[in-house]
Amino acid sequence: MTEHKSFAFEIEARDGAARSGRVITSRGDVRTPAFMPVGTAGTVKAMHPQEVRALGADIVLGNVYHLMLRPGAERVAALGGLHKMMNWPYPILTDSGGFQVMSLAKLRKITEKGVTFRSHIDGASYELTPERSIEIQGLLGSDIQMQLDECVKLPCSDKDAEKAMELSLRWAERCAVKFGTQDGRAMFGIVQGGAVEALRIKSAQSLAAMNLKGYSIGGLAVGEPQEIMLRMIETVEPHLPQEKPRYLMGVGTPDDIVESVRRGVDMFDCVMPTRAGRHGLAYTRFGKINLKNARHADDPRPLDEESDWEPARLYSRAYLHHLVKSDEILGMMLLTGINLAYYQSLMAGLRLSIRERRLTDFIEHTKAGWERGDLALWSSKPSVGSGASL
């Protein structure tokens, strides 16, 4: 693994607004466009760290809110930091905890100083300020740290969106002061503004003036139609520094990702592939496949015989269906790995197609596969004994 002294971002190829390159950190490079598996509490659920790396991930995400509640940031630091604790020596991005405070915490109160809230676990009272969020992320030892922001749910009033955006800008300045200058690490600002173009532009321009190491687009994928999400990306993109990485937080579906890459986004994270895997849903080149469906019960063929990830080729649909219906942990593990492998394969395809300047063709071919699905491929009645074994 190559060691770097300073955080940097290099764009190696472009195709329209899309970029392919690498984010450079002290713990290694992150190839972009990148999908970051979510390791909320110091673990990508149902996966060994070695597997997460083997399927193509350069970076994972950890969550301030969950880790501050347990085991506690100071405890993680005393144990050598999050990288050592979870046996992941590669880059880690931590979010600020703000989104989870808004969505999970009980009896929260937002002031200029920060947020006070009660834990969803035991009701204990906590205060999370911009400075404390950065302090926690420093104790965790993450390579990319996020500012504390206020994220409002959509739809919301323009007044509420503006109030949250302005507060997030003031908090960004405080986070930047607290973070200071750290070789090999970076703090990202978060663009807010709801679905109001003028607010999004003001947020992006104000954050760009702070000369941060990277920029995130937050407050999207919170229930709004994809059309609005993409319009907000298009609105913000011209106002963000071209030479800095762009991270669309909490996104998303494979279709959301390819359309956002087309519009110039470099980094993504989402719980969708891991959560879906734990509930019997597979993401594949055929689109989504529900392994709970009875049509898989007698199908001896693999989920995807062309997958780069061995479990997708090795285990039959009938066996996966059985595991899912029986709530077996192995089923959750296999489908989580299959989903993350597909996401990483999709990112690799996007990176290559950008370098070869054929992104549009790649996206059209990929979407055609999702639309066609797997029913046509498996239309003939399977003969017992064909395909992968149980």
Helical residue percent? 40-55%
CATH class of the largest domain: Alpha Beta
Separation of the first and last Cα atoms: 38 Å
Strand content: 15-25%
What's a quick, concise take on this entry?
By secondary structure, the chain is of the alpha/beta class. Helices cover 40% and strands 18% of the residues. The protein contains 15 helices and 16 strands.
Describe the structure.
With 390 residues, this protein is an alpha/beta fold. It has two domains: 12-270, Queuine tRNA-ribosyltransferase-like (TIM Barrel, Alpha-Beta Barrel), CATH 3.20.20; 276-372, no CATH class. The chain contains 15 helices and 16 strands. It has helices at 49-54, 64-69, 73-78, 82-85, 98-104, 130-140, 158-179, 197-209, 226-236, 254-262, 272-278, 310-314, 317-325, 329-355, 359-372; strands spanning 8-15, 18-25, 28-32, 34-36, 60-63, 92-95, 106-110, 115-118, 125-128, 144-146, 186-191, 214-217, 246-248, 267-269, 281-284, 287-290. The longest helix is centred in the C-terminal third of the chain and has 27 residues, at 329-355. The two termini are 38 Å apart. Residues 380-390 have low confidence and may be disordered.
Relevant terms:
single chain; 390 residues; TIM Barrel; 2 domains; 3-stranded antiparallel β-sheet; 40% helix; 18% strand; disordered C terminus
Topology:
Layout: E1 8-15, E2 18-25, E3 28-32, E4 34-36, H1 49-54, E5 60-63, H2 64-69, H3 73-78, H4 82-85, E6 92-95, H5 98-104, E7 106-110, E8 115-118, E9 125-128, H6 130-140, E10 144-146, H7 158-179, E11 186-191, H8 197-209, E12 214-217, H9 226-236, E13 246-248, H10 254-262, E14 267-269, H11 272-278, E15 281-284, E16 287-290, H12 310-314, H13 317-325, H14 329-355, H15 359-372
Parallel strand pairs: 4-14, 5-6, 6-10, 10-11, 11-12, 12-13, 13-14
Antiparallel strand pairs: 1-2, 2-3, 7-8, 8-9, 15-16
